[in-house]
Amino acid sequence: MSGGFDPALLAVLVCPVTRTPLRHEPAAGLLISDAAGLAYPIVAGVPVLLVEAARPLPPRSDPA
C-alpha cells in the first residue's frame, strides 16, 4: 500500500462525474479528480466517491 491506500484499487477507481482516473493525495487523505475539480475523502481507508461528500478544489493560478 502507498500512504494507507491500495494502489491497485486506485488503478480501477474513476471520478463518478467525469469517469476519469483519480490521483491520491496521501497527506490530505483525498482522491483528486483534476477533470472535475473535486476532492473525494478517504474515511478509515475507504474512498467516499459521492459527489455530495466531495469538496471543490481551489482554483489553479497560472504562473505568469
TrEMBL record:
Pfam families: Trm112p. Belongs to the UPF0434 family. This is UPF0434 protein LHA26_07625. It comes from Sphingomonas morindae.
